[in-house]
Structures are given as C-alpha cells and as structure tokens.
Amino acid sequence: MGDSSRIPAATRTVALLRELARSPRPVTATTVARALDLPRSTVYHLLAVLEREGLVVHLPEERRWGLGVGAFEIGSAYLRHDGLSRLAGHLLRDLATTTGATTHLGVLDGRDTLYLLKEQPARGAALVTEVGVRLPAHLTASGRSLLAAASRAQVTALYPDAAAFGDRTGRGPRTRAALRRVLDEEAARGWSHEDGEVTAGVWSVAAVARDHTGRAVASIGASHRASDARPGDATHLAEDVVATADRLTGRLGGPTT
After folding, report:
1. Is residue 127 very low, low, confident or very high in pLDDT (cuts 50, 70, 90)?
2. DSSP H stretches of helix in 2-39
3. In this structure, what are the phi and psi dihedrals at residue 45, rounded to the nearest 5 degrees?
4. Are the beta carbons of 107 and 76 closer than 8 angstroms?
5. Where are the alpha helices (DSSP H) in 117-232?
6. For residue 213, is pLDDT > 60?
7. CA torsion, ordered 82, 87, 89, 94, to nearest 10 deg
8. How many Cβ atoms from other residues are within 10 Å of residue 241's Cβ?
9. Taking a C-beta distance cutoff of 8 angstroms, is the pair 238, 207 a contact?
10. pTM > 0.90: yes or no
11. pLDDT value at position 124?
C-alpha cells in the first residue's frame, strides 16, 4: 500500500469519481480501493460524503456504487458552456438545410432534456424546444438517446419511482420497467424515436455525440410534422441524424463509427 496519507482529500475524491465514471457498471468499494491503492476505510468515508451530496448512489442489494444525479448536474453545467454550442452550430444548420427538419442540440440535466441550440427551416415544424427549454427526458427522443447511453444505476437514480415520470400528451413510458424496455430497444438500434409524446402531431429522432472518454454528452435531434411523414421517413432521417452526431463526436475527440 502506498503512502496515501500524503494525498490531498480533494485529489482522492476526484480520483474516486473518475474511477466510477470509467467503469461500465457500478462497482464495489473494495474494487475502488484496490484500483486507487487506498485503504477501504478511506474509500467508504469518501463514498459516504459523496452520497450525501448526491454525486454517487449506493445499491445496497448489490453492495455496489455508481455515479449519482449530482454527477449528471455537474457534467451538464459544463456542457452548457459556449464551446459545445459553437462546435455543433454549423452541423445543426447543415442538417436542417439538407433534411428540412427542425434540428436541436440537447443535454441531460437531471431528469430533463435541456435544449442548447435550435435550427428551424422556414417551413419546419413548430416546436416547444426553444433554446433554454426543459422537457421530461423520458418523453423526448433527445433525452432518451442520452438515457439509453447511461448505466442502469444512473437511470435508477434519476427515476426512483412512478412520481418521477411526467406526462404531456398521455403517451410515453410511465414506469421504470416501461422506460427500460424502450431504452434497451433504442440502444440496440443506435437512435431514439418519439411520436407525439412531447407535442401531438410531431415526431422526432435523436442520436448521441460522445466526448474523448466515450461518454455520451449531448444529443442531435430532428423533428417533422406527422402530417408530412411517409413510411420509412423516421429511419431515413435517423441516418442523417446519426451521421451528424458522429461528426460532432469527431469534433469532441470521441470515437467515431
């Protein structure tokens, strides 16, 4: 065991959070202690403090730990800085021009989809997704694409019970089990789709962009009026949306397909 007593507490805390972020699933405190070469007592103390602040979540049945809602909030605050919007701005305009869809850049902020950018063609669908608007993430294609890329522990922390599920048009998942089924399907497909769950008569598709660590940090979304839709339109639009999200991933230094 190294001389961990000389490591500042802040350094240990950051290292612990990064270790949880690197793991694809929740881990035990013993695993964290081994990875960081820290005493288990120190790790348990740090985890207890971080749990009180909402930065980590404890899964008692599994005796494991994962990132909590607070970690999402901090990450989302970073993403609201101008850099991400500048990187995505031209891409959204190009997507709107080539597809005729209303396009938007969204991030996950707690249980909300927060919209940072919007590009609307002259004849694009009228939407409530203005810049700065928040909508329930489980109802939006943008939010679900990000939730589908999150760990099960993170989704559980965000949606602990039925009261967490808001409603707009009477459509969309209303329980964690129903949401899980949708997220699993959309994760396997590589993009998300909602139809009338946010605004009646409007459907949307979305895909995630990833940063240099491979983490899903934002979503590229596109929307059309249902009255203008033809069979296969969602799949065709999704191909353009995924390609645009991949371009943003490349600009963020992330892994591209």
Report:
1. low
2. 9-22, 29-36
3. -65, -45
4. yes
5. 141-149, 152-158, 176-189
6. yes
7. 180
8. 27
9. yes
10. no
11. 57
